[in-house]
Design a protein that fits this description.
Largest sheet: 5 strands, parallel
Shape: globular
Strand order of the largest sheet: 2-3-6-1-7
Number of strands: 10
């Protein structure tokens, strides 16, 4: 990771404490005019995978393998797309039968357009040559597996933002087979078309992200000969051709969020010129599909395959379950504790077939990547280091009311410890911050409070947040400095 420039906070009349720990937000929340993500990628060419990983490091903490896999997959995909589109333009503009030019003919004499006999082929062309250009390589869709709150959606959304391509997010839990109550799989393409502002050309080169894909696994216990799994195997069958590449017909229905078109009379009215067609035909051969899910219980399938017990004095016994409290039911939140061995990194296609996916569906997802649970250090960096961090968001939120808020080192440590015990990854951090700052967000707006200090005792519930009025800035900064020095002496 590239080193970042240190951020220096200006203190009015106090000495700036030199510390190795980051206690405040590294980046502040700016408007879109001040920070434009599209300037990172030059319009003339694609960014390299190394540049994409460097960009992801500013928004996503950890998950180095997943960043590398997604960056390489996106780079190869759009390299293939550009090559195919360029080859298609060259093929469409060339005329193989044009041999004579009009400039070579004498004046007043028009050249005859001669074509060879239909049964005779040109010597430099094969008898059976495809009219469509051959692809450089097949499309490689990606399957992302990881616990909730580990950054699956954020990775795909950040890549789509830096590449400036249409991006749509769909939930697989609402998908059903065609003809049944629920959403058809074509809805993900319709959302992609809406994200492209109803431009079919841009939509045909976008990214479709389908979350909770583990919910469409085949229900072997409830499926019988007389019943059909319309929400599981039926959805997998419907996604096969779309993921591989087919032409999907999408209805151009007006969205409820769009303003109504102006009604003006006359033939040359702008309303008639901007009217959308009734149907759109989207070719998904250049659309990248990224599927993700938590896949709860998949690690036990991999564990049974890897850890095989035997008989004898030198036998390799299968390891016992680490969490005995979670036997028999699914935990509400995914734990942030790292196990001694991550079995999800040893996933094979056969394990996903046992989980409930059909082999045809898994074969269209050649790229697998897994995300690890977040550690305490990862949670701390999410609070302070990344762009759009939680502390920068709440600092900007209080700043809208003219209030400055600070967090001490002890408070951040206690917040991360509570997040590890609670689980839920980065989403668990936001829940903890909302509960801690509820009283401050209720009392401060409209009052004379101008400074708020969050301490470690406040996170533990031993004392409330500390407030200072207008003009009490030196006392506020002195209290914050005392808390930081106390934390340094405690660490030593």
């Amino acid at each position: 990771m590239l080193s970042r420039l240190p951020y220096t906070y200006r203190v009015h009349s106090l000495r700036v404490l030199s510390r190795n720990l980051q206690t405040q937000a590294r980046y502040e929340v700016h408007s879109r005019d001040e920070h434009d993500d599209s300037s990172f990628l030059p319009r003339s060419g694609l960014a390299t995978p190394r540049q994409l990983v460097r960009y992801l490091d500013e928004y996503v903490i950890g998950q180095e393998i997943a960043k590398k896999v997604l960056s390489v997959a996106v780079f190869n995909h759009y390299t293939r797309v550009r090559a195919n589109l360029a080859a298609f333009d060259d093929e469409s503009g060339a005329d193989p039968w044009s041999e004579a030019e009009a400039d070579d003919a004498p004046p007043g004499v028009s050249s005859a357009h001669l074509h060879p006999h239909p049964q005779r082929a040109l010597p430099h062309r094969l008898p059976l040559q495809p009219r469509k250009p051959v692809s450089l390589f097949e499309k490689s869709n990606v399957l992302v597996i990881g616990p909730t709150g580990s950054g699956k959606t954020l990775l795909a959304r950040t890549l789509a933002r830096v590449l400036d391509v249409p991006f749509s997010v769909s939930d697989a839990t609402s998908f059903t087979q065609a003809g049944y109550v629920g959403e058809d799989v074509d809805m993900c393409i319709q959302r992609l078309l809406q994200a492209a502002n109803w431009d079919s050309y841009r939509a045909s080169t976008g990214i479709v992200y389908i979350d909770e894909v583990d919910k469409i696994a085949r229900k072997s216990s409830s499926t019988t000969e007389s019943s059909r799994d319309v929400g599981g195997e039926g959805v997998q069958q419907a996604l096969l051709r779309m993921m591989e590449g087919s032409v999907v017909t999408v209805q151009g229905k007006p969205s409820s969020l769009e303003p109504p078109a102006p009604t003006t009379r006359g033939r040359g009215s702008p309303a008639a010129a901007q009217q959308r067609p009734d149907t759109f035909h989207i070719d998904t051969s250049n659309v990248l599909f990224i599927l993700s899910g938590a896949f709860v219980g998949l690690d036990s399938i991999v564990k049974r395959r890897v850890s095989k017990g035997s008989i004898g004095f030198t036998a390799n016994l299968a390891p016992k379950e680490e969490d005995s409290d979670n036997k028999g039911f699914m935990p509400f939140f995914t734990s942030n504790r790292r196990s001694s061995e991550n079995f999800l990194e040893m996933i094979e296609p056969a394990d996903l077939v046992k989980y409930g996916f059909i082999p045809e569906f898994i074969s269209r997802l050649p790229t697998f990547t897994t995300l690890s649970p977040l550690s305490t250090q990862d949670l701390r960096r999410i609070l302070t280091d990344v762009r759009g961090s939680l502390i920068s968001q709440y600092t900007a939120l209080f700043g809208q009311s003219g209030v400055e808020i600070r967090f001490t080192t002890a408070s951040i440590d206690q917040i991360c410890s509570r997040a590890v015990e609670r689980g839920g990854g980065a989403r668990g951090l936001r829940g903890i911050m909302e509960s801690l700052l509820l009283d401050a967000m209720y009392e401060v707006p409209g009052s004379n409070v101008r400074y708020v200090l969050i301490t470690g005792d406040m996170v533990l519930g031993k004392s409330p947040a500390l407030y200072w009025m207008r003009g009490d800035g030196p006392a506020f900064w002195a209290a914050w400095a005392d808390e930081e020095q106390r934390a340094e002496r405690y660490q030593v």
